[in-house]
Amino acid sequence: MLAGLKEVLAEGKARGIAIGSFNTPNLECLLAVLDAAETLGVPVIVAHAQCHENVAPLDKIGPVMTALATRSKVKTCVHLDHGEDFGYCRRAIELGFTSVMIDYSTRPYAENVAGTREVAEYAHACGVDVEAELGALPQREGGGESALRPEELYTRPELVPAFLDETKIDALAIAFGTAHGIYKTRPVLNTEIISEVRKRTNVPLVMHGGSGISHEEYREVIRRGIGKINYYSYMSYAGYAAAKETAERTPADFFHNLALNAQNAMREDALKTLKVFSGV
Q1: Could you report the per-residue pLDDT of 175-227, keeping only the tens digit for each?
Q2: In angstroms, rounded to a whole number, what is the distance separating the alpha carbons of residues 87 and 78?
Q3: Phi and psi for 75 in degrees, rounded to 5?
Q4: Domain extents in the chain
Q5: In angstroms, rounded to a whole number, what is the distance separating the alpha carbons of residues 37 and 55?
């Protein structure tokens, strides 16, 4: 069933779990995630990142996401991940997305506040929830890297109350050592930042770059106050590996077999991940 971001995060908080948010730039990803969530009976977030526009245009994948979310047996938020401008966020809202993230985190603080507030005012008038980011990840969604050291990008907890007051967002993504993509080296997380931010607000907190950390680290960030975890890269890689193995094992085959095997592998990865997020 179609649900808003605040609704699924509130249920997660009541159940003492984190809600998984998965990018779903194609049908196989979308079916894998929804099947995994339904198997466990947990709310879930399916997301489309603006950087995937060349993979799956918003106008094409968006209606599929909302249709399947509406038919899902679990509460499903359809979310825009890392929207890069007001216009793209507006398009997602017009397509029926129940939540949008506007990401001006790499801009100067004042620009982040002003741009985020503009999106929040429009989205809230449409009954849509909003996520934004304070601090930034060293490796950006889509592959770009910052020239700054990770610790220079960490969220500054003392800025959080004013940022929330000025923007009126519904969820806040914070930076404390994770990165997007496949990790080349083991990430070092400063989880104390989560606790310091949590002392200053009850707004739901989000971890981006959620792939590739240990089960113990997942449990730690959830215990400290993270309610939404973005996860995609390692699930997608599991699908790629399954398709590659199929192609190498049976050189003369049909694409639908590669796609189905990839979907099944992604479902298993999503299921395993949601079990960790849910403490199963």
Answers
A1: 988 775 554 555 678 999 999 999 999 999 999 987 778 899 999 999 999 99
A2: 18
A3: -65, 125
A4: 2-278
A5: 24
Model confidence pLDDT, tens digit, residues 58-117: 999 999 999 999 999 999 999 999 999 999 999 999 999 999 999 999 899 999 999 999
On the CB side of 237, how many CA atoms lie within 13 Å of its CA?
9
The structure tokens listed for 136 are 């930034």
**pTM as predicted:** 0.92
Q: Is-contact 143 137, C-beta < 8 A? A: no
To the query of whether residue 35 is one of the catalytic residues in this protein, the response is: no
Among 201, 202, 221, 198, smallest CA distance to 210 is for 221
Non-local CB neighbours of 262 within 8 Å, separated by 6+ positions: 28, 239, 240, 242, 243
Q: What is the CATH number of domain 2-278?
A: 3.20.20.70
Q: Report the 10 Å Cβ neighbour count for 211.
A: 21
Residue type (1 letter), 64: V
Question: Are β-strands 44-49 and 171-174 bridged in parallel, bridged antiparallel, or unpaired?
Answer: unpaired
Of 85, 96, 29, 54, the C-alpha closest to 262 is: 29
Round to whole Å and give the CA distance between 211 and 230: 8
Q: Which of 35, 81, 129, 269 is catalytic?
A: 81
